[in-house]
Amino acid sequence: MLTQPTEKSTGKGIMFNEMYDGDEVRPEYRIVADWLAANGPDALNEKREEAEALFKRIGITFAVYGEGGDPERLIPFDMVPRIFGADEWERIEAGSIQRTRALNAFLTDVYNDREIIKAGIVPAEMVDQNEAYEPVMKGFTPPGGIFSHICGVDLVRTAPDEAFVLEDNCRTPSGISYVLENREVMSRMFPELFRSGRVRPVDHYGDMLAEAMASVAPPMCEDEPTMAIMTPGHFNSAYYEHTFLADLMGVELVEGQDLFVEGDRLYMRTVYGPKRIDVLYRRIDDAFLDPKVFNPESMLGVPGIIDAYKAGGVTIVNAPGSGVADDKAIYTYVPEMVEFYLGEKAILPNVPTWRCGREDELKYVLENLGDLVAKEVHGSGGYGMLIGPKATAQEIEDYRKRIEADPAGFIAQPTLALSTSPVLVEQGLAPRHVDLRPFVISGTETRLIPGGLTRVALKEGSLVVNSSQGGGVKDTWVLNAGGV
């Protein structure tokens, strides 16, 4: 039996165990506890072996290059789902939608009237000197005023009613394929748990995304829009997801060499001749998208696509320049963006954050580095960060020198008592830290499916959930009201 862990997180108190309240199973998890009581841990291990075989057959992989060996890996999948009650999810859903609306308003603003800068809320240099800010987008508003059509909001919990946003992913957030494939595998392994209808479905994501993309068709599109997904190719770490989404939505998967621009319209080469593309979901970085505007040496992009975009001949999802909102220094202003653009208080707060570019906050960070989590403002994937309480004295000193050399390039946060969720280990069930990435889709409406990507730090005591550093994933269940 899994019991409430007694370990503490840097003196911040007992960590919230999402399955147990003391020795009692929380109502949301009774569905799983009852199954375990009826079948036992051996049956769960058998199901895990079946699931691993299914993942191998399907070929659900991610890629890590530069480490030697076979870069294609099966992402570790844990059989014990993470479960949210209807009330818990309602707050996460409302807060994620609110935050995404504010981020899209911010992106439209900073490329146009810059009212938030004029109001003295966000410093101009934090935008203009951001490496993800694209001057070519100045004065342009995408169809519907949406820059980030698919936004990933990374969350952690410290209590049943307490969730914090770790970071925003407005550029090209990945992981939705795992959300949908995890559910497919779980429904095959445990059909009896889904027959009651207590778990809300997630299989309508493809339809939701297609509707949103169609709703932002470009001005030149006068009939049913033709859509496609653009991939940099099979060497990309998320290539499996690109192919998965194209199959799910029933649209073409294309590379730059398949496309060309003519007369401010984007076309795809086919054996039957050119075919117009109206909405392009690109899974390629800004720098490689258009060699006429960005990196002139790019062989992955489409010359002239930015001119066609700005002329109204094609819509690019997500818009170039969206990455300025991913910056971890910009992140610190999002609650203020919510108030500025929406006139509302943020439903989901940020993790308290120190901006090292400010002299007084830098002083505090350097004096307390051993107790904090420090991150590069442009970092991702769990790389380039320091978890002070788990670092050696030498690692802390080396990181201190990095911050001192470029204070504006770093932020720091407290080490929160992050929630744990049970995972299946050799000894049975054990608590491991988790986070959550809901995927918010913006078109005519801003919506999300009832679920998201739960990433889990499979190493005992680890706070790093990224798959590239040993993390795994879980199916995320949202129960219908009264479904506990």
Outline the biggest β-sheet. 5 strands, mixed
What general form does the structure show?
A: globular
Count of individual helical segments:
12
Would you tell me the structural class of the helices and strands? alpha+beta
Q: Please bin the fraction of helical residues.
A: 25-40%
What percentage of the residues does DSSP assign to strands (E)?
A: 15-25%
Compute the separation of the termini in Å. 20 Å
Average pLDDT: 90
Poorly predicted runs = 1-13, 64-70
Count of distinct strands: 24
C-alpha Rg (nearest Å): 23 Å
Order of neighbouring strands in the sheet with most strands: 5-24-23-20-19
**How many structural domains are formed by the residues?**
2
InterPro entries: ATP-dep_Glu-Cys_Ligase-2, CP_ATPgrasp_2, UCP005522
Organism: Pontivivens insulae
Protein name: Circularly permuted ATP-grasp type 2 domain-containing protein
